[in-house]
Design a protein that fits this description.
The protein is α+β, with helices and mostly antiparallel strands. Helices cover 30% and strands 29% of the residues. The longest helix is centred in the middle third of the chain and has 18 residues, at 183-200. Residues 162-295 form the GGDEF domain.
Length: 300
């Protein structure tokens, strides 16, 4: 298959360009995946330079080689579901030259595009991507980004034999705050909670605003008691917060649903669905409380 050749330096030699894969399908559209000079393994394995967690991608799916003075080459590493360039399946084990702009499909669902970008082009794309995944009011990531990242966190935790905790926090009576003090007060409450979560969580925790007045936090925890204590600290931290606006001062509370998937299983879908169920129960239980799934966990 004759695909041309892409090089790290452009034809003029005056503006150095760097190689990237940009996600189109099977992930968050627009996300840039930087490639290093030399060989880049692509697959589900954590050891891959480019990790794609989609289930139809093999653990060691493909090898993408990028060099300063040689054509870029893509090799399918005997994957189960194949590697496709512009719709054509690559022969297994045979390096094939890759042209800039080529669309590459790994397995059946993950579609990327091979790009060569200057620093300015990269920054523009990253700015657009960042705006697409952030809630404008709280500046926290949205649900789509959270789901992508929590899958990666779960994979790392599973390898380290650690559990995954997901807490969903819902601001109690936010609609009453809006009705009594105005929509600006409700917005101030959302922004305040976002700031609290940023300052009151660990640097490797994941935080997102996933719905109107619901926030998600994902953290590593070795066992259920530690996870429950962590969720309770989040609730207590919020309950001590006084919101001040031009028109009013008021205290807020949150209802918290906690899902925990233990070491060895570390299933993010189970943890999230459990957290959703527990959040509903926390609201029924009177709000301003933590409801969580007990150990042992069944049906993971």
């Amino acid at each position: 298959m004759a695909l041309g050749a892409a090089r790290v330096v452009d034809m003029s030699g005056t503006d150095r360009r760097a190689p990237y894969l940009m996600l189109i399908e099977g992930g968050i559209p627009g996300m840039l995946l930087p490639l290093k000079l030399g060989g880049n393994t692509i697959g589900r394995s954590m050891e891959s330079e480019i990790q794609l967690l989609e289930r139809t991608v093999s653990r060691r799916h493909a090898l993408l080689e990028v060099w300063d003075d040689q054509p870029t080459r893509l090799t399918d590493l005997n994957s189960v579901n194949g590697t496709f360039v512009n719709g054509e399946r690559l022969p297994q084990g045979m390096p094939t030259s890759l042209a800039e702009g080529s669309k590459i499909r790994f397995g059946t669902l993950v579609v990327t595009q091979f790009l060569m970008l200057t620093k300015a082009q990269e920054q523009r794309r990253r700015d657009l991507f960042d705006r697409s995944i952030r809630d404008p009011l709280t500046e926290l990531p949205t649900l789509a980004y959270f789901l992508d990242q929590v899958g990666r966190k779960a994979e790392a935790n599973r390898k380290a034999n650690l559990g995954l905790a997901i807490a969903l926090l819902d601001i109690d009576h936010l609609e009453s705050i809006n009705q009594r003090y105005g929509r600006d007060a409700g917005d101030a409450t959302l922004a305040e909670l976002a700031g609290l979560l940023r300052s009151g969580t660990r640097h490797d925790d994941l935080i997102a605003r996933i719905d109107g007045n619901t926030f998600a936090v994902a953290a590593t925890a070795p066992d259920f008691p530690v996870a429950h204590a962590w969720a309770e600290r989040l609730r207590e931290m919020t309950a001590r917060r006084l919101i001040r606006t031009e028109r009013a001062m008021f205290w807020i509370t949150v209802s918290v649903g906690l899902g925990f998937s233990p070491p060895g299983q570390c299933n993010p879908s189970f943890a999230l669905s459990t957290a959703e169920l527990c959040l509903s129960r926390a609201k029924v239980a009177g709000r301003n409380c933590v409801v969580s799934n007990p150990e042992p966990i069944l049906g993971v």
